Amino acid sequence: MKNNKQTGRYGLPLDVKYCTKCNVTNQKPTSINEYQHDKNTFQIPIDFDNNNICHACRIVEKKWNGSIDWKEREKELKDFCDRYKNHKGQYNCLIGGSGGKDSAFQSHILKYKYGMRPLTITWAPHIYTDIGWKNFQNWIGIGGFDNYLFTPNGKIHRYLTRRAVINILHPFQPFIIGQKNFAAKLAYLFNIPLIFYGESVSDYGTKLDNEKQFSTKIEDSHPGFTQDPISSMNIKDVKLGGDPISYHIEHGYNMSDFECYLPLDIDKFKEKKIETHFLGYYLKWIPQENFYYAVQNTGFQVNPARIDGTYQKYQSIDDKTDGFFYYTSYIKFGYGRAMSDSTMEVRNGHITKEEGLGLIKQFDGEFPKKYEKEFLEYISMTREEFDELCDKFRPEHIWEKKSNRWELKNPSWEYFEKKN
Q1: What whole-number distance in Å separates Cα of residue 105 and Cα of residue 116?
Q2: Could you list the pLDDT tens digit for every one of the 420 residues in the chain?
Q3: Which residues contact 37 (CB under 8 A, 6 or more apart)?
């Protein structure tokens, strides 16, 4: 894709705007095909309508305005689950998760309210936090589930994470790729016909033609959410950490080192007739309510203190690299952790737009100091090297340097002050 006069770096709109309902920036990326992701990749930014309202707001407001018949949706879920209750085998569905609030809610309600027999699976975080490991154990032990925990080769995972930071400033990419494809592989291995995912990604602004399930055809779906992302590619051209696999092989690694990061062959997926469904299509998915449910039913515990970069203590708390994923997003897109958290709470009516704006101003872009040492050791960089690298990824239309300090050219609070 070529750049044009209306777009800047990463294919982002040059005219920075913020949603009039939730404060999210129009620079926020939706998902892309990570197997094609390199330094030249253009993102697919969240869509704003003619009223300057983001697609995420338009999707979430349907949950509350009566346009969805939730009783009918739940009936559809019950009927759907009934189709699988006589499935021969120990498990009739598979659920991926870490034991956080959302996977805890999802697995518990499907097992104990809807009578399903889930196998839970976990792709391990880069570096477990103490609270993350405790919540994982509580999920299995108090919630009551069988679980397969997969930890990828640590040497390979660190290598790919470092390459992803250097090439695309994306420390979470190896985890995201592995986690996204692990479920289908385990479903195939254990002959499990059904995979449940949580909320539809449309809740966060990604446009999907089918909000019930992942598509098996890349042409029918959003590029980041298809079960068939690489069948049209030469395997050595598939990118991991921003480099083609051929690069990794030239540097002494083997094809077998990367198998766990690759998706299940689409023919195998179809052979077993595996179905994928978003539970959030059938049940009203409210992250804060999931938190209360998980505390009550699976022993979920919050972080002891506020998380760097935001105001909350219960979202994305299992991995010591989490904060750097949000921090690097802030560098590249002006979209940090406080904005991510507050915009969803505004959409669901838990805080006001004005309260959200204040939280963004106070916390967004805060450097994640708590796990700085562990993260930098993990990617083999000094703080100076990491800061210098981050500065290379700042888009000129988002950032400017004043008195030797980087500042947003058009922060959300000033944007709305001008509008008023």
Answers
A1: 14
A2: 444 568 999 999 999 999 999 999 999 999 899 999 999 999 999 999 999 999 999 999 999 999 999 999 999 999 999 999 989 999 999 999 999 999 999 999 999 999 999 999 999 999 999 999 999 999 999 999 999 999 999 999 999 999 999 999 999 999 999 999 999 999 999 999 999 999 988 899 888 877 887 766 655 567 777 888 898 899 999 999 999 999 999 999 999 999 999 999 999 999 999 999 999 999 999 999 999 999 999 999 999 999 999 999 999 999 999 999 999 999 999 999 999 999 999 999 999 999 999 999 999 999 999 999 999 999 999 999 999 999 999 999 999 999 999 999 999 999 999 887
A3: 168, 170, 173, 239, 242
Report how far apart, in Å, the C-alpha atoms of 418 and of each of 14, 24, 358, 414 are: 18, 16, 16, 6
- As given in the structure block, the two tokens for residue 329 are 């997003």
- Tally Cβ neighbours within 10 Å of residue 44: 17
- What is this structure's pTM? 0.95
